[in-house]
Design a protein that fits this description.
Shape of chain C: globular
CATH architecture of chain B: 3-Layer(aba) Sandwich
CATH class of chain B: Alpha Beta
Number of helices of chain C: 2
Largest interface: A-B, 40 and 39 residues
Number of strands of chain C: 5
Shape of chain B: globular
Strand order of the largest sheet of chain C: 3-2-1-4-5
Structural class of chain C: alpha+beta
CATH topology of chain B: Rossmann fold
Oligomer: heterotrimer
Number of helices of chain B: 5
Helix content of chain C: 10-25%
Order of helices and strands of chain C: EEEHEEH
Chains: A alpha+beta, B alpha/beta, C alpha+beta
Radius of gyration of chain C: 13 Å
Helix content of chain B: 25-40%
Structural class of chain B: alpha/beta
Distance between the termini of chain C: 20 Å
Order of helices and strands of chain B: EEHEEHEHEHH
Largest sheet of chain C: 5 strands, antiparallel
Chain lengths: ~550, ~150, ~100
């Protein structure tokens, strides 16, 4: 994994002092909140319902044990003993004091972490496939490119004040585990017929109140031109986006208004110009970064067999393990979705358990998934039983990956000042309703995603079943959506009809699920059945 | 406090800046005022008679002016680019990198704050309109003459 | 009644204007009537409060209760973590919130 050199370290330290100075000016009354707000937001510090919230970047979802232990320390020292993993592979702490924030940034800098551009109208932390470097189906590890772009998009002068936020995602497999096409700028690394590496580019995606799935603007941008292409996209958007209505300033709206063809034409024109400026980084720098991502020293001749004699372990193995590229190894998914608990939350003690496991069993690496779970990417199959036992003892061995209880939910009205309704209790009630493991396994892959407002941090547009909380005359109301996907079979969910109260929406989900069970054909997932039969039958089942 | 913070040694153009349309119509004007939505590429044919470009920031959240300045420098313009309007001291480091070399905001900048803001970051990650050498190039001195 | 609330500038804690100063407890909230703007301006200038705002509330037998669910959640804490609320020992503390 990447290691800071003196330059990266100096930049992050400079940002800490910059923010320390800004915070001091605010606390001394030399700045109003109106002036301070855009500055603190560019550094991930929000004011939420109960306190300040600090969002920490986890570049492309990769952490080592030292970093996770530091997060545990921050949770204990500056927060209330826990953290929350977000739907963009970051972590946030919900009980931060403004006066502590600069010190926290200093502690993060000690372990090569930061909060730069984790909110505000900026190029956000770059997300990537959480199986990167381990997946059996990837054509290469996408993280060297994500890291290169992370550096090149840090403090980009021309884009100091973008119209809105801008989210980049990089994957390198056919299977899309990172919701790539729901980003402003999605990249899939591909090989052309000559065997050269390049990028398929998908601009213009995004959730929020006006959801769009990114379209493909290029089949192949040669690898060492991707930074120029990105600048071209940013420049077309920065110059031509509306600036009069914050809800219409995301790039997806400009793409929609210009049309895909015209947007592509303008980008290509700008791209040809920017290429002449020679701002792309050279092969030598890419090679330097890529060297940090050389695969760990996998052992050879390891056994493939897993002793399944413990039935609870066997259930967990069947659900939580993904194929690894190296023989004898497996990718372990660690569920942060205990039945009735709070998805994505993790205590300081649990962080330390996972950090220890990563250090001992996974070449000191772990990953955060956008599904708010953790991943130990490189575990010997022979070690799986030991890993499972320790996870189980820490309350982290739920076997529900991609099942009905593996629910994505935003913090909602329990924490968030933008929310209109609570998400977390709805997720908890649904998980309790389907708690029986036999029921969960019978239902198979079923992705429920819940947002507490139209900003869609809970990805409800991309849920096989989506739930959107709204405010109806001062009370919480929940709309139900069906048919979305954030994977390679990407699609946008549609609203079923009138909304429900909290208990009502849980019942409605159950009716939709029961309808699926009744009419499914062999091998069909919920989403497959829905796509085959359409909304009408489900609507009738839900509303009677 | 100085009303204008200027990073040039040449004499400032003292003619009032005119709008882009007016500038393109008049053959003797030397100063142009660029509004946030103006396309600075229209200045390409008349760059040689241009001495001052004022780029206005109607509100600090409107970042179009950053692209306008960058594009002017890419076109080879070497005269003055002045930022006017709602300019945040915390952003002037990045403005300098885009090619702005004077600042005359609505609320004058405190020179000490400006000085601190301009010296905050020891390095830069990417090329821009200034002469700063990006970090990747510092890491590969062998490429310096390539 | 009209309540003045906001977050403590330094700590971010939710605070309520009690007539003389800021309290962590909504029960202490005072009706600011028409004096609110002056208090707000003074307190903001003194860097004691962030994001001050006026909200509607009602005085009940149990104390002052904000009208909107968001402010009721602000007043007590997250509904999903009783242990993190202002009254972690009282299992019924959240009954009035939702």
């Amino acid at each position: 994994m990447y290691k800071y050199d003196q330059y990266d370290d100096a930049m992050v330290r400079a940002r800490v002092e910059d923010f320390r100075d800004q915070t001091r000016r605010r606390l001394e009354g030399k700045m109003t909140d109106d002036q301070f707000k855009p500055l603190r937001l560019k550094n991930g510090l929000y004011l939420q319902l109960h306190a300040y919230m600090l969002r920490i970047a986890i570049p492309y979802g990769t952490l080592n044990s030292t970093q996770l232990r530091k997060l545990a320390h921050i949770a204990r020292t500056y927060d209330r003993g826990y953290g929350h993993f977000t739907t963009r592979q970051n972590i946030q702490f919900h009980w931060i004091k403004l006066e502590d924030a600069p010190d926290i940034l200093g502690e993060l800098a000690d372990v090569e972490m930061h909060c730069i551009q984790t909110s505000g109208e900026s190029i956000r932390n770059i997300s990537a496939d959480h199986y990167a470097g381990a997946a059996a189906d990837e054509i290469m590890d996408p993280r060297p490119w994500a890291e290169t772009l992370r550096q090149m998009t840090t403090f980009m002068p021309e884009f100091s004040y973008l119209p809105r936020k801008f989210k980049i995602c990089v994957i390198a497999a056919e299977e899309d585990r990172a919701a790539m096409r729901w980003h402003d700028f999605g990249l899939r690394i591909v090989k052309n017929e000559a065997g050269e590496i390049g990028f398929e580019v998908y601009p213009g995606g995004g959730m929020g109140r006006t959801p769009f799935i990114a379209y493909k603007s290029s089949d192949f941008v040669p690898q060492h031109q991707i930074f120029s292409y990105l600048q071209a996209v940013l420049r077309v958007w920065n110059r031509h986006a509306r600036r009069d209505n914050i809800h219409k300033q995301r790039m997806k709206i400009l793409v929609h208004e210009l049309g895909e063809e015209e947007f592509t034409r303008q980008v290509e024109e700008e791209f040809r110009h920017i290429l002449t400026l020679g701002t792309d980084f050279p092969q030598a720098e890419y090679d330097r970064i890529a060297a940090y991502f050389t695969p760990p020293p996998f052992e050879t001749g390891l056994p493939e067999e897993i002793d399944r004699s413990d039935p609870d372990f066997a259930v967990w193995i069947d659900q939580q393990i993904a194929p690894h590229k190296a023989p004898g190894y497996a990718i372990v998914n660690v569920s942060l979705k205990p039945i009735g608990g709070i998805g994505g939350d993790i205590t300081a003690e649990q962080m330390e358990v996972v950090a220890d496991l990563a250090e001992r069993y996974s070449f000191d690496e772990l990953r955060v998934a956008h599904t708010q779970n953790l991943v130990l990417p490189h575990v010997r199959k022979a070690d799986l039983y030991a890993v499972w036992q320790q996870l189980r003892d820490a309350g982290l061995a739920d076997a529900n990956l991609d099942l009905v209880t593996d629910i994505i939910a935003c913090p909602g009205l329990d924490y968030c000042s933008l929310a209109n309704a609570r998400s977390l209790p709805v997720a908890a009630r649904i998980a309790e309703r389907f708690a029986d493991p036999a029921v969960q396994h019978d239902l198979g892959e079923l992705k429920i995603k819940i947002s507490g407002c139209i900003n869609a941090c809970g990805h409800h547009h991309a849920g096989h079943i989506g739930i959107l909380g709204v405010d109806r005359k001062g009370t919480e109301n929940y709309q139900l959506l069906l048919g979305g996907s954030g994977a390679e079979d990407v699609s946008q969910a549609k609203i079923t009809g009138p909304g429900f109260d909290e208990a009502g929406v849980v019942d409605a989900v159950e009716r939709a699920v029961n309808h699926y069970r009744t009419i499914r054909e062999p091998g069909e997932r919920f989403i497959d059945t829905y796509r085959r039969v359409g909304m009408e039958g489900f609507k009738e089942a839900i509303y009677g | 406090m100085a009303d204008v913070l200027r990073f040039r040694d040449d004499a400032a153009a003292d003619e009032p800046a005119v709008s882009l349309d007016a500038f393109l119509d008049q053959t003797n004007a030397v100063s142009v005022r660029i509004e946030a939505g103006d396309d600075v590429r229209r200045l390409a044919p008349v760059l040689d008679r241009l001495r001052l470009v004022e780029i206005d920031f109607p509100k600090f959240r409107d970042g179009r002016g950053f692209s306008s300045a960058s594009i002017l420098r890419e076109m080879g313009y070497t005269g003055e680019i002045k930022a006017t309007g709602d300019v945040l001291v915390d952003l002037i480091f990045f403005m300098r990198r885009c090619g702005f070399d004077s600042f005359a905001p609505n609320v004058p900048l405190d020179p000490a704050d400006a000085e601190a803001a301009l010296n905050r970051y020891p390095y830069v990650y990417q090329h821009a309109a200034d002469a700063e050498v990006p970090i990747w190039q510092l890491r590969h001195p062998e490429l310096a003459n390539g | 009644m009209k309540i003045l609330t906001g977050n403590d500038l330094k700590t971010g804690r939710v605070i309520w204007w009690d007539g003389q100063g800021w309290s962590l407890h909504v029960e202490d909230a005072a009706d600011v009537h028409d004096d609110g703007e002056a208090i707000l301006a003074r307190e903001e200038a003194a860097c004691r409060v962030n994001g001050p705002m006026f909200i509607e509330g009602e005085r009940t037998a149990e104390g002052v209760r904000p009208a909107h669910i968001k402010d009721r959640i602000r007043a007590l804490g997250p509904t999903v973590r009783a242990d993190l609320t202002l009254k972690p020992a009282d299992p019924n503390a959240g009954n009035w919130v939702i």
